[in-house]
Amino acid sequence: MAFKTLPLSAVPAPAVEHLLDLAFGADRKSRTAYLLRTGGRIVPSLSWAVMDGDDIIGAIQCWPVRIGASRLVLVGPVAVRPDHQGAGIGHQLMHLMLDQSGILGNPAMVMIGDLEYYKRFGFSADATAGWTLPGPWEPHRLLARNTENAGLPINGMIEEDCDAL
């Protein structure tokens, strides 16, 4: 069966929240990445859903953040319903988001994730050693992607950026 993609804004918020609970657990909002998303709004052109009929089975959200004066896109969560994991849906969502990032000039991106998985999309921990987050995190999981070689600070705290994008 072919799945369809939709802008995440076309999916009812309760359905997205249910997917995120299934993928990450009901305690997900206590994680550090949520501290960066509390007052912000998603970047619509980079946030997508994968649908199986009327059911959401995958989603990617992107959020505006900053480190000092530099603006970045926080990628995540990338969620796939547990009974659909391993089917390439996360891969599809990442590629769709990266393809669409050209609309915004391929902004620098940051995420908290598994390097072994996300390095295939150009993410690494090379530039993030001096960066901090507003909560606990594992430094090796703080990843960045900077294909346009934007001048990013070597040190600083990543913060939400409600005014960006």
Account of the 3D structure:
- The N and C termini lie far apart (35 Å).
- It is globular, with a radius of gyration of 15 Å.
- Strands 1, 2, 3, 4, 5, 6, 7 and 8 form an 8-stranded mixed sheet that branches.
- By secondary structure, the protein is α+β, with helices and mostly antiparallel strands.
- α3 links the parallel β4 (70-80) and β5 (109-112).
- The protein has 4 helices and 8 strands, in the order βααβββαβαβββ.
List the helices and strands and how they pair.
Layout: E1 4-7, H1 13-24, H2 32-35, E2 48-52, E3 55-67, E4 70-80, H3 89-100, E5 109-112, H4 115-118, E6 130-132, E7 142-145, E8 155-160
Parallel strand pairs: 4-5, 6-8
Antiparallel strand pairs: 1-2, 2-3, 3-4, 3-8, 5-7
